[in-house]
């Protein structure tokens, strides 16, 4: 901006392509918002097709070859049965919105056994996998410190933050099916390192 050097702005346009806007100059800085002001009006824009509100998408389907985990269905059934078809964190009971989450991650060699599983609703499973939510070996829920400070809305507050420092609401009744505390400890250390 100080040097008045030109930039190229690659603008995504309808149809999945890009249009190069050149030259673009920065004309101001908004320090509080950590952003710059661009003088877009000074740029010739003859070839730009601005996206319409109603994008025309191709509704056809194509086949795709994918790998599937053959153990996932029986693993899910066994874990959901052990947790009485309830999210371990919030006790949500709609089975179509529940997952069997691996404590020791499947991709890292975690076994498909009930003691390596937790029934989690979609939001808590995603939060667990992304290290937003952790579970201690004593079955206590912890929330990432940055996320605890966030102010967003009722879903964040009631869906994630309110469970911080609370015990799991649902744990299998049979001791032989309860989460392996050593696996929880290892996964919890990964959560702490990500915080």
Characterise the protein shown here.
With 195 residues, the chain is of the alpha+beta class. The chain folds into two domains: 7-42, no CATH class; 83-194, no CATH class. The protein has five helices and eight strands. It has helices spanning 72-82, 122-129, 145-149, 154-159, 181-194, and strands spanning 7-13, 17-24, 26-30, 35-38, 98-102, 117-121, 133-135, 141-143.
DSSP summary: helix tally:
5
Rg computed from alpha carbons, rounded to a whole number of angstroms: 24 Å
Whole-number mean pLDDT: 87
> Biggest sheet: strands, sense, closure?
2 strands, antiparallel
Binned, the helix content reads: 10-25%
Q: Tell me the series of helices and strands, N- to C-terminal.
A: EEEEHEEHEEHHH
The beta-strand count equals 8
Query: Into which percentage range does the β-strand content fall?
Result: 15-25%
Low-confidence stretches: none
Taken together, the total number of domains comes to 2
Distance between the termini: 35 Å
Shape: elongated
Assign the structural class, choosing from mainly alpha, mainly beta, alpha/beta, alpha+beta, or little secondary structure.
Answer: alpha+beta
How are strands sequenced across the largest beta sheet? Answer: 1-2
């Amino acid at each position: 901006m100080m040097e008045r050097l030109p930039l190229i702005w690659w603008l995504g346009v309808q149809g999945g392509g890009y249009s190069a806007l050149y030259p673009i100059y920065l004309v101001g800085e908004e320090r509080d918002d950590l952003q710059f002001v661009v003088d877009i009006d000074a740029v010739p824009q003859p070839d730009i097709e601005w996206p319409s509100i109603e994008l025309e998408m191709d509704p056809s389907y194509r086949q795709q070859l994918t790998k599937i985990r053959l153990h996932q269905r029986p693993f899910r059934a066994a874990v959901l049965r052990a947790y009485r078809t309830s999210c371990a964190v919030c006790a949500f009971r709609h089975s179509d919105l529940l997952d069997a989450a691996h404590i020791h991650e499947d991709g890292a060699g975690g076994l498909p056994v009930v003691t390596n599983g937790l029934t989690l609703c979609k939001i808590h499973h995603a939060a667990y996998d992304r290290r937003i939510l952790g579970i201690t070996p004593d079955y206590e829920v912890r929330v990432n410190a940055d996320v605890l400070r966030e102010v967003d809305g009722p879903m964040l507050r009631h869906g994630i933050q309110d469970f911080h420092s609370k015990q799991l609401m649902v744990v299998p009744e049979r001791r032989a099916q309860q989460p392996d505390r050593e696996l929880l400890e290892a996964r919890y250390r990964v959560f702490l390192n990500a915080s």
